[in-house]
Amino acid sequence: MMSVRLLLLIAKIHKLDSKAIDFVLAFPQADLDVPVYMELPAGIDLGHGIQKRAYVLELKKSLYGLKQAGHNWYKKLRKSLESRNFIQLQVDKCVFYRDGWIVLTYVDD
Questions:
Q1: Can you point out the beta strands (E) in 40-99?
Q2: Which are the contacts of 100, defined by CB distance < 8 A and separation ≥ 6?
Q3: What's the predicted TM-score (pTM) here?
Q4: Integer Cα distance of 56 and 76 in angstroms
């Protein structure tokens, strides 16, 4: 949070433009780094006599509620920023810069 406060303060003092972006459904856009399986959700009917517990689903994308979901999203965002020539700060891995641009990343879930 120190970087957030510092960058907002600098932007205010120097009258710089600042923008906030909220990625809708961010976590399901990120790939999983390990196989994750889940039980069939309630409401799925497999037919008469078929046991739901005999089946599981393999997730292909991250979901909200997974412990690694925020980290997987951050890795996807970092890769995308680096592909656009942004450089990650060594002192704070949430801050990226390029040619007069500063991007502060923050995962709040």
A1: 56-58, 87-88, 95-98
A2: none
A3: 0.77
A4: 26
C-alpha distance from residue 37 to each of 18, 42, 58, 64 (Å) = 40, 15, 4, 14
| Letter string b/e over residues 89-102, b meaning 16 or more CB atoms within 10 A of that residue's CB | eeeeeebbeeeeeb
Query: Quick check: 50 and 57 in contact, CB under 8 A?
Result: no
Which tens digit of pLDDT belongs to each residue from 37-86? 988 888 887 777 777 777 888 999 998 889 889 899 999 999 999 999 99
Closest to 1 measured CA to CA, from 109, 108, 81: 108
